[in-house]
Automatic annotation (TrEMBL), chains A, B:
CDD domains: RNaseJ_MBL-fold. This is Ribonuclease J. It comes from Paenibacillus residui. The gene is rnj. HAMAP family: RNase_J_bact (MF_01491). Counteracts the endogenous Pycsar antiviral defense system. Phosphodiesterase that enables metal-dependent hydrolysis of host cyclic nucleotide Pycsar defense signals such as cCMP and cUMP. An RNase that has 5'-3' exonuclease and possibly endonuclease activity. Involved in maturation of rRNA and in some organisms also mRNA maturation and/or decay. The keyword Iron does not apply. It comes from the Bacteria.
Amino acid sequence: MSKKNNEKLSVFALGGVGEIGKNMYVVQYANDIVVVDAGLKFPEEDMLGIDIVIPDISYLVENQDKVRGILLTHGHEDHIGGLPYILKQLKVPVYGTKLTLGLVEAKLKEANMLGETKRILINADSELQLGTIKASFFKTNHSIPDSVGVCLDTPEGTVVHTGDFKFDQTPVNGQYADLHRMAEIGRKGVLMLLSDSTNAERPGFTGSERSVGAELEEVFRKARQRVVVATFASNIHRIQQVIDAAESTHRKVTVIGRSMVNVVTIASELGYLNIPEGMLIEPEEVNRMAADRVVILSTGSQGEPMSALTRMARSTHRKVDILPGDTVIIAATPIPGNEKFVGRTVDELFRLGANVIYGPGSVSGVHVSGHGSQEELKLMLNLMKPKYFMPIHGEYRMLRQHGLLAESVGVDKEDIFIVDIGDTVEVQNGVARRGAKVQSGNVLIDGLGVGDVGNIVLRDRKLLSQDGILVVVVTLSKQEGNILSGPDIISRGFVYVRESEGLLDEANRIVTGTLNKLMNENVNEWASLKTHVKDALGRFLYEQTRRRPMILPIIMEV
Amino acid sequence: MSKKNNEKLSVFALGGVGEIGKNMYVVQYANDIVVVDAGLKFPEEDMLGIDIVIPDISYLVENQDKVRGILLTHGHEDHIGGLPYILKQLKVPVYGTKLTLGLVEAKLKEANMLGETKRILINADSELQLGTIKASFFKTNHSIPDSVGVCLDTPEGTVVHTGDFKFDQTPVNGQYADLHRMAEIGRKGVLMLLSDSTNAERPGFTGSERSVGAELEEVFRKARQRVVVATFASNIHRIQQVIDAAESTHRKVTVIGRSMVNVVTIASELGYLNIPEGMLIEPEEVNRMAADRVVILSTGSQGEPMSALTRMARSTHRKVDILPGDTVIIAATPIPGNEKFVGRTVDELFRLGANVIYGPGSVSGVHVSGHGSQEELKLMLNLMKPKYFMPIHGEYRMLRQHGLLAESVGVDKEDIFIVDIGDTVEVQNGVARRGAKVQSGNVLIDGLGVGDVGNIVLRDRKLLSQDGILVVVVTLSKQEGNILSGPDIISRGFVYVRESEGLLDEANRIVTGTLNKLMNENVNEWASLKTHVKDALGRFLYEQTRRRPMILPIIMEV
């Protein structure tokens, strides 16, 4: 009995609070750890040269024997994208619904890891006993089918994780959020709710995906030439609606962009897309068909530089050109940080003579969010009636707003835990408090390197990007203590060399002068010579240009 | 007479079409050139290390003897910020209203150019004869006082340039847009209208600045502690309303941030700000005063990393800390591209316990735009009734939308000229057509360098920022044809060197092997040696890391 009282429930995030993306949440009771999601995020603008960012999972690796599995709420990159990296260090089973596992398997196959990973198919009715923790699920609405919330019954009480969700009262696939099961869970009692905060700043209700379908059909019908629709590759509901609108307006659809082709293939194989026979055509066929019989479904809704839409807009796509009079629909809202890229793509499309439909979904009518707004967040809170509340999935300000929403529906302020990654909330004998911090952070992936680019490398990249570099090389004689060759000065990213000969000649004279003076004074230690050269040259260049390039003095000795 | 018929009117932009900012427009008739505005813009994210961007004015410099002057519409940076650079090459008089010239003079003083620049004060009733071109003005509403539109009567007809404008029916300074003069100009006949497209994508009317005042007062009244208001330094109407709201809620105001202090000083000296005696306090006094008696007026509404608000949010401001319970008002909308910076600042402020009022003006109530929305743009078009129309001030998509608005009020499609910088529209005998292109472009300023950073330097900075640099140095013997010293490999921004010794050792062996092999084959030309080293090393590093650092082989010979 006394042992029982010492056990505690611990809930924390390794990613996904205080940031959008990289979602990973951990629920631990005694020796049983359950992980929810394993996402990646894209680098911040100060992470130069970095490809993607995953959570630091040191805590899980250290406690590997306790980790009972990773439960996936849905198949978006920010929830499954970290798996190929994480499963290399953490050999644990992965649980997901059919579509989610389908997307995971494609990912693992590409990473040559399919064989070594235990994958367990679940559905919304599954129940799993993961040590002392019993996991069950409930269906939710989101911008990808087969999304679930997770209910974890622990000896200390029930923890509910909503996953990403909205309440769509008219879902396009007829799969309603399971209000009844949520009500049942809430009735039985929820100790702690972790709920999606992405749209916590947005008043009201998020529109139904179905509203987009009618608008798409209207645009398709009016268009006299080809229609291009750019949206998120993973938004299978949207893709279905594009296909439906194409069918009812007698158009054929071609799919462009690697990720879009992948998702359409997997989703239709698994039965999540209903594509009439003969509806899909190859991109090569587009030019042979009447313009008003074609829809091009494409990636690039975020203006990503290498995406299909961006290449079409720049007339550099191998297969498809935008022609004057084509209609381009950007059926997505720019993710913060991407506004400029999207704007530029729209500009290019207009220049080509296209009619572009873009802007916030509320204006364009061709996009709705996959995340619930304030009224839906309150509805979830009222269904679950949690004792404790932890807003998840969002920047700090969104977590904060979600906290205020929870207060507004009656959750006590001191029962709301707004946490950073690594902050634990511990519950023992029904009482929650903040516990010790566990190791957490960003692991940066650059090429094949996982975590090998740290602050020093990033600082150097930043410096190099601002004012470039000057390399100063000189060969000295070990015996004579004089200059045998050089100094040679090579610069990159600093000034246009051909127009700056005078400056660089003078720089050369300063280096020679500095070295000769030092060597005459019998200063011969490399470190000292280098420091003096760096200082003298840096001072001179700053005076002349107000720039501070990185200066790399290299002394060779023969 | 035959000579007269050969003369033509030419209108073009050297900046400000197809881009926000860097505004500069040129109207030329025969040997008379009038320039409207001389702005700067801030660098795009691919212009690494660049401080600011100004227009290429080669055309004006080549025709210096014809340039009659630069007319300034108002005192914002994107209309006057290029002057210190431009006036170095172009010795022409500058015309502006009182506040505009006040701000220009502060700028020229800082650049030590006040003495050499001819400045001519105008007001909305001024008339100037600039060669064959007669310039007059009309008052407009904008987010800075003393804004005017420009009316240029030429022998070919009248060209109107609106400057930045909105129609504020209840302006806070009682200075109404001069509807009557605009009507008069329109009645007499306008050949070509150049009109502000900034908000051409936005339906309806822009709100009155006055609506912000009531909201500010309400927030000030409710706040129990200090209030921080961040807004654009140049928004003098907003600053006046902060001062008014402070007065009516018995608070004192302190001003923080260099540009805010400058503007407040100039505007109050010139009578554009009405500040009650004793209202302003020094930042040092803030901590000594009761928290509910203080307003802090600050820069940083765009989350700029070095601004006063950002430093307060990060608790690194020298004089002012944000305390739990303080209210922070961000009275501005993020400029596209700045959303993430503003978001981060809001996050930090919330973390400090502040109550933050932020978001689009339509939600927060504490901001309205200074630019007219679609209904106001149509009103301007209907007042001026131009024969030809050229939308200005905006990205291409905005110019396009403005063109559609013009069509909707009856301008013929073929009389609408959507142009890029350097595209000329020529009018001769009443007929407009596109003419030859004049030289135009971006001049990048980096430190003291004006235009010396070009594509090669930027490309190198980009490369350096992504995967860093490896410098490979080796000293060869001229006689023996062997390696005397090295190869030494120094890297920056590539990998963390201490953890990559094996990789760099192997790289070293590859360089040595490549050089020895070549020299045994009597390949001795440096260029060839360098190329082989670069290729072999590049291949090896890409295989090992999937990164492509810049490789700089340097061969010294003794």
